[in-house]
Amino acid sequence: MDTAAHGLAKEDVRKYLQRICEEAGDMMRAYDPQLLLEWTDTNLAAGAAFQVDLRIQKDGVHTGSVAMTLEKGDILQLGGIFGTLAGKGTIADYSLDVTIKDVVSHGSEATTVKVTWHEHIVYQAPSAPEDDAANHIVADIEADCCHLLLREDGRLAIGLTLCSGDARLSMAG
Question: Beta-carbon neighbour count of residue 145 at 10 Å?
Answer without folding.
Answer: 20
